[in-house]
Amino acid sequence: MASINFGGVTEEITTREEFSLSMAREKLRTEVVAVIGYGPQGHGQSLNMRDNGIAVIVGQRKGGRGWNDAVRDGWVEGKNLFSDVEEAVRKATVVQYLLSDAGQKEQWPIIKRNLKKGQALFFSHGFSIVFKEQTGVVPPLDVDVILVAPKGSGRTVRTNFLAGSGINASYAVHQDATGRAKERVLALGIAIGSGYLFPTTFEKEVYSDLAGERGVLMGAIAGLMKAQYDTLRAMGHSPSEAFNETVEEATQSLYPLIGNHGMDWMFGACSTTAQRGALDWSKRFEAATKPLFELLYRDVLQGVETRRVLDTCGAPDYREKLQVELDEWKNSEMWQAGAKVRALRPENAPKK
């Protein structure tokens, strides 16, 4: 492990230099990893492990999108792809439980009755374990319970890996039944393509994750963008101008620079007019939104958000209702304008 000073606070992290892929392969040499669920995380993690030489099988119910995606990606029915999820669990030494949170609640009785002593039960989200009163997910005491949570979507886990990069991930040990839980979780974290690994707990992971995706990562950003776009449109700006000033300049110019250099660099590199306005108004936006973030975190901590997820996402007509909500965004003027703006980017121009 390396001791790194993060803004005055020292943390212990694990990099691929200290825990190499060859070390991970050796630690997992006798393991068979069953990835249960071929959604975004199941897709990315299983393919990365397969490419890294780890023995991987996939458990996915037949007939749906996940099954078709797995077949497309080269998983072979009866060899390393099983429609009988119970069979996949029984064949494994590590069970990566990567169904949706609502799916984990629904399928848990099936998974639990097939777990055996010495296996590792792996999660990429602390939801089911932390909110066990709502999910019913209480693992047997004779299995390791571990977590690696990539700080990005499952699709990014795969695309970053293919680009020769990685994506940062947190890890945690909730239950060490074998005495090998930590080495298992670190090896799996490297095997799925993590850039570096930092320690957390199941509780801290789920609280920060639920707050983050509802906040700055997606929910708050979507709301801020729409508020600014609608204001510009109401004041007479065209759709293309409003979208460019709200989204295109942010995602195509400023956000990549912030990601590469930091906010201080961005403030220092822009015009003095932009600099002065951004520095002054950032404090006003912080003051206006801080109470909302505190309310959000409180709802996460008290299980309000998880109850909403389980109640809505577990409903039989959820996908139909979700599509209505997604279509509202897709068909709004703002994102219709966005589709046109993206098509006009030089890299998307028709090849001559």
Characteristic terms for this protein:
ten-stranded mixed sheet; 352 residues; Rossmann fold; 17 helices; 2 domains; N-(1-d-carboxylethyl)-l-norvaline Dehydrogenase, domain 2; alpha/beta
Task: Give a structural overview.
- This protein has 352 residues and is of the alpha/beta class.
- The chain has 2 domains: 2-200, Rossmann fold (3-Layer(aba) Sandwich); 215-348, N-(1-d-carboxylethyl)-l-norvaline Dehydrogenase, domain 2 (Orthogonal Bundle).
- Helix content is 57%, strand content 15%.
- It is built from 17 helices and 10 strands.
- The protein has a 10-stranded mixed beta sheet with strand order 1-2-10-9-8-7-6-3-4-5, sandwiched between helices.
- The longest helix is centred in the C-terminal third of the chain and has 30 residues, at 272-301.
- It is globular and about 65 Å long.
- The mean pLDDT is 95.
Explain the layout of strands and helices.
Blueprint: E1 2-6, E2 9-15, H1 21-27, E3 33-36, H2 40-51, E4 56-59, H3 65-72, E5 81-82, H4 85-91, E6 94-97, H5 101-114, E7 120-123, H6 127-130, H7 132-135, E8 144-150, H8 154-162, E9 167-175, H9 181-191, E10 194-199, H10 202-214, H11 219-234, H12 239-261, H13 263-269, H14 272-301, H15 304-313, H16 318-330, H17 333-343
Parallel strand pairs: 3-4, 3-6, 4-5, 6-7, 7-8, 9-10
Antiparallel strand pairs: 1-2, 2-10, 8-9
Helix pairs in contact: 1-9, 2-8, 10-14, 11-12, 12-13, 12-17
